[in-house]
Amino acid sequence: MTNSQNGPTKAEVQSTELNKLPVPGENDTEFSAEEAAEVFQQNGNAELESENEE
């Protein structure tokens, strides 16, 4: 088997942005039940107000 230099090396492939493992917590979208309840109440009140205006 010949060592061809036409393609990227193993190190180049492993260091590409799309080939990296995600960093834990970087895109953390979790929230607590209390936070969810707050948002739900705010959205619910906004919907009730808009229904009463019609």
How would you explain this protein's 3D organization?
The protein has 2 helices and no strands. The chain is mainly alpha-helical. The longest helix has 21 residues, at 33-53. It is rod-shaped, with a radius of gyration of 25 Å. The N and C termini lie far apart (77 Å).
Can you give me a brief rundown of this structure?
With 54 residues, this protein is mostly helical. It is built from 2 helices and no strands. The relative contact order is 0.07.
Can you lay out the helices and strands and say which pair or pack?
Layout: H1 10-14, H2 33-53
Distance N terminus to C terminus?
77 Å
Structural class, by secondary structure, is mainly alpha
Mean pLDDT: 77
Secondary structure: number of strands: 0
Strand content: under 5%
Helix proportion: 40-55%
Rounded to an integer in angstroms, the radius of gyration calculated over CA atoms is 25 Å
Written as H for each helix and E for each strand, in order along the chain, the element string is HH
Parts with pLDDT < 50 across at least 5 consecutive residues: none
| Bulk shape | rod-shaped
Biased composition (Polar residues): 1-18
Biased composition (Acidic residues): 27-37
Region (Disordered): 1-54
